Amino acid sequence: MQALYSWQLTGDDPKNILLAFREEDEHAKADPEYFREILMGVTGAHEELDARMQPWLGRELDQLDPVEHALLWVGQWELAERFELPYRVVINEAVELAKRFGAEQSHRYVNGVLDRLASELRASEIRR
After folding, report:
1. Residue 35's closest CA among 18, 50, 47?
2. Taking Cα atoms as reference points, which of 106, 116, 109 lies closest to residue 76?
3. Which residues of the chain are modeled with pLDDT < 70?
4. Whole-model pTM?
5. For the chain, domain boundaries
6. 65: number of Cβ within 10 Å
7. Other CB atoms closer than 10 Å to residue 31's CB: what's the count?
């Protein structure tokens, strides 16, 4: 999420952001391959991800808080690409990060949008 936040604010090449984050001690515990997959996957498909979530936003994309936007990208990417992760886990992780890094009520917003996206992207899993 922090790398995507940085990408939004700086417009830097995702490869440079990847290298910078890998050098930080705080990120040494993260799975480097998964981190790369998320960063490169989201930045490479951000227009598609934005288009898919637009109907559920209730506002224009440019009005999204960068933290919310990053969390919605990550959550949506995981819902679409990582079927081994239960949709409830994906949504819960995004909500917890929104509580920690987002505005006061952003966790509710992130939960609502990802819940709607999950009903589209994980319909068969939800019906079980």
Report:
1. 18
2. 116
3. 25-28, 128
4. 0.92
5. 2-127
6. 16
7. 9
- Please give the pLDDT value at position 22: 79
How many C-beta neighbours within 10 Å does residue 99 have? 14
Rounded (10°) CA dihedral 61, 65, 70, 76? -50
What token pair was written down for 6? 């940085």
Residue with tokens 């939004």: 8
What is the predicted pLDDT for the residue at 76? Answer: 97
Identify which of 37, 47, 48 has the alpha carbon closest to the alpha carbon of residue 14.
Answer: 37
- The domain made up of 2-127 has a fold known as N-utilizing Substance Protein B Homolog; Chain A (1.10.940)
Q: Return the structure tokens found at 95.
A: 């909500």
Give the pair of three-digit tokens for residue 92. Answer: 């819960």
7: Cβ contacts below 8 Å, ≥ 6 apart: 14, 17, 39, 43
Residue 28 has a pLDDT of 66
